[in-house]
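HOLO CASE FILE
Compound: S-adenosylmethionine
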Amino acid sequence: MTTDQTSTAGAPSLQADCAQALFNRQLAAYRKIVGENLMFHREVYGLLGELLSREMPRPFKFLDIACGDAVASAAALKGTSVDRYYGIDLSARSLQLASEALKVLTCPVELRCCDFVEAMADWSAPVDVVWIGMSLHHLQTDGKARLMRDVHDALSRSGIFLIWEPTLLEGETRDDWLDRFSVCRAAFAAVTDDEFAAMESHMRLADFPEPADTWRAIGYQAGFANSDELFMMPNRLGRVFKYWN
Ligand SMILES: C[S@@+](CC[C@H](N)C(=O)[O-])C[C@H]1O[C@@H](n2cnc3c(N)ncnc32)[C@H](O)[C@@H]1O
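Model generated. Tokens follow.
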């Protein structure tokens, strides 16, 4: 595992301690949300596993951008023909958890601790499937488009690109979408008020959903000839799209 982010000489500063503690709390809350299926990981990653089993019968190389702890990806990939797994994430702690979760796979696993925008700008290992779950929406529209171009360039000719990302309903604004998340509080009963408030403020700061038409258009701009919408979350906050040539 390449970890270029967290090693420091000497004692960590108080500020670094606080940032780490905050990150660990957020990670614990996210793992609780996934465990309780509040974001529909079961349905989304179930769909991913079925698609890979059906469409990728021959050995394939899988790149998981912003893989986090990779628990859901590991379950989706188990039993498929995956013969190489690459995961990228900024969080060294998440990658430690990922290296445990991915032990269920029999193929080589390579985890890179870095910014996915930088990693994809000069990605050189050929891959057949690229997956991004709930992470591309932190970029602005032109950043999303640039990242999709880099993904297009990284893929083999028959490769596929799949994203699961926050998506606006027709005519909806970002503020409407954020308000729609806020009224989901009752469904998120498993998280505390503080955890829910932290999620909301993170989203208001860093989440930039796109309309479905834009998600598809930036895929075409990136060079993909085809796109399809595969799934909408039951709360209609996000969707899965597939791109291919
Ligand atoms: C919401 S989690 C998604 C995890 C997983 N893909 C899923 O579907 O549940 C977002 C992940 O993206 C990572 N992340 C966010 N921005 C990143 C960046 N610029 N480069 C690499 N990782 C990033 C975070 O560390 C976190 O693990």
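CASE NOTES: The mean pLDDT is 93. The domain at 14-244 is CATH 3.40.50.150 (Rossmann fold).
CLOSED: yes
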